[in-house]
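Researcher: Go.
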Amino acid sequence: MHQSTQQQKVLGNSRLPLFSNTFAHNPPPKLSLPSGLSLGQVITRFEKDPTRGHLTESAGKKYILPFAVLREVVGEDKPIGEIARADCAACHELLASLPRNYNKLTEFRGKGLRELAELAKSSGATLLSQGTVQVYAHHPSAFFNYAVQKGIIEHNPASRLMSGQPKEGSSRLTFNNNELKGLLAELPGWAGNRRGGRFWAPLVGLFSGMRLGEVLWLHTDDFQTVDGIEAIVLRRTDDRSLKTRGAARVVPIHAELKRLGFMKFFEDRKRTGGRLFIDLPGDDQQHCVDMFQKRFSYMLKQKVGVRAGVSFHSLRHNFRDGLRNAGSPS
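Model: Structure:
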């Protein structure tokens, strides 16, 4: 006992000032978090963060509606640390109550989001699809994860908010054999018996796995010979965006496209240069995609009779499955 008392005296006298107020029964220290940062302030920081500068413009646009919902339900001035899971659930419910094409139809213009939801309910308007709601609902969670990573909040109130929701499998559908035969039979007539963009774009999608925006905004100088193989070299340009970094790639031109005469079509277009499918209207890449998508989807439903959820993007999944069935490694 005497020796222990002596040791305590020695330790007490030699204690460093840094630890003078530290004892075993003290509570664990907390993270040093910025106090009082509002939702609006963190959104501004998120949007201007230089570490997110590599993301495409389209990726940033996907946050516009989720942020608008957060501002309307929670309030821009509310401290972000006080946002609860119930707030995030209310945002999710508002998203799911919004009418489809709310930002395009005249009767929906100039109205708040809650007002839009009430109007949609009373008028029986078609709501955003479940798949669209799932995409939008993911972005608040990603935003709160950002705040956690930056040390602004300690936990993500929107984490796994979508868990338990049935997934909308239609976004992953491929064309079945009958649908694919119907599409190929319909293409010449839909293209007006001209082998232009309407005819070739679906075939390029089927035999390359390229996304619709990549196909429609091809330029003649994208066609190059790489290691002796004719290919399409995809890269981001001033007038063409790519979805991800990995989307910049070299795509060999399929032998079936060559057999059908695609390279002759390319050679004819090469003489004038510029866009490959110059006959497809659109002021820019996104506008061209929107216009083509609507017409193509209408043809699939009315002429081919595809299942709900089968779209141009389904061709990409047909190509993916073809590679997998052929034993091609990832």
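Model: The longest strand covers residues 229-233.
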